Amino acid sequence: MLAIINNLYVTTFKQGSTSWLQQGIVVGCLKISHQSIFTGANNFTIHGLDAKQYAGFFGFTYSETEKLLQTFELLHSKDLLTQWYDGYRMGDEHLFCPWSVSNFCANAIEATNFDFEPRPYWINTSNNNIIKLYLQYAVDNNRLDQLNVMQEFLQGTPQEIILQEFDTYPNLSNYVIDFNSFMTLLLHTGYLTFTNDSPLYGHVILRIPNLEIQKCFEAKVSELYTIKNPTWVKKSKTLLHTLLINDYNTVYNIINNMLGVFISLRKTYDEFFYQNFIQGILALVAGAENITLESEVDADHGYADIVLTQRSTLTVVILEFKKSKNDDIARIKAADEAADQIIQRNYAQKYMNMYYEKIFGLGLGFGGKHCAIKALGNLA
User: How many CA atoms lie within 13 A of 114 on its CB side?
Assistant: First the structure.
């Protein structure tokens, strides 16, 4: 294949005195001037993301997009298209994704309803596994710093990186790519773009360009914390079984680890976020392990947040959650209050009446990406 491509490029771009080609353009994501397949035809002039002369050709400019919408009588959709497909910065130009805008217009004029909804057209041309591979690497290796950067991107906060220069794709499959190289790769392939005030080389500031890309990131992040991810499932099983034997020190370590590597799509954390977080983790594996998981369980004088029951071992685990400020003392205090609530509202009585022999109560206090635990022992 290298020999074929090499011959193709040499015979196309280097004709000597009998050249029939005045000018040729190669379009792609990476520099090609030093690649071995271009030996004999490597005197290319590179116009990258920082190029000003040809920046407007990388996509549709604002005026071109407006003219297109006007032609198709879709000007009422301009703000919506801006939100979904605008946001790319090439040199000094601000561009729309041409593929997505073109597809939107083509489908909108065929739609029967006046307000045609945008769709992720460009993103759907690829499986986008580049994002999933790197996120998986970060989770598997507890790279909290890199996961926090992705969290900030998803919350709309630009991030500074050091732009890397490379002319071959880094090997993602073996996780041999560093963070700055990965971010540079996302920039070159359209998943990230420069902010308006960012320099175009060296230390640069990047952001997610628009809603189309935002939804792609969110979809890949969501996949990471499902049954499709064996690493997450393994942690979920371990948490479930350590709860059932009341190994609260291990429970503490597992929950804090899983919180640390979790990327939330929400901007604020409340008590229900933490409850749903733990419930989601346990729900992944509880059914397959023949363990019943219930939430907001009516138990004598109140409602227990989460209850796990395993009839075969006559074991119950009662979990109560409290939200606190993001500091150790506040979390400990919140865990104490949660544990006290289990006692004061007599959540265990229901299961004593059913002759369960082990009824473990745990109060959990959450703040930020950390938790504290107060264990009550066997309430039976």
Answer: 2
Model confidence pLDDT, tens digit, residues 38-96: 566 667 778 888 888 888 888 999 999 999 999 998 998 899 999 999 999 988 899 99
Q: Which of 192, 224, 256 is the last residue of a domain?
A: 224
Q: Are residues 244 and 354 in the same domain?
A: yes
Per-chain mean pLDDT for the chain: 88
The verdict on 284 and 240 lying in the same domain is: yes
User: How many residues are given for the chain?
Assistant: 380
Residues 324 and 365 sit within 8 Å (Cβ to Cβ): yes
Range of the domain at 12: 2-38
- The verdict on residue 49 lying in a domain is no
Strand order in the sheet with 370-378: 292-298, 303-310, 315-323, 358-367, 370-378
Shared domain for 186 and 241, answered yes or no, is no
Strand order in the sheet with 203-207: 159-162, 203-207, 193-194
pLDDT in tens, 205-246: 999 999 999 999 998 899 889 998 999 999 999 999 999 999
Question: For the chain, what is the domain count?
Answer: 4
Record the tokens describing residue 272, joined without a space.
């229900």
pLDDT of residue 377: 94
Q: Is the pTM of this model over 0.70?
A: yes
- Is residue 45 in some structural domain? no
Q: For residue 367, which of 320, 318, 319, 334 has the smallest C-alpha distance?
A: 334
Last residue of a domain, one of 170, 195, 224: 224
DSSP 26-74: ---SS--TT-GGGTT---PPP--TT-SSSGGGGSB-HHHHHHHHHHTT-
At 241-300, the pLDDT tens digits run 999 999 999 999 999 999 999 998 877 788 899 999 999 999 999 999 999 999 999 877
Report the C-alpha gap between 357 and 135 in whole angstroms: 42
pLDDT at 58: 87
Angle between helices 144-154 and 211-224 (to 10 degrees): 140
Please tell me the distance from the alpha carbon of residue 376 to that of residue 344, in angstroms, as a whole number. Answer: 12
Q: Does a structural domain hold residue 257?
A: yes
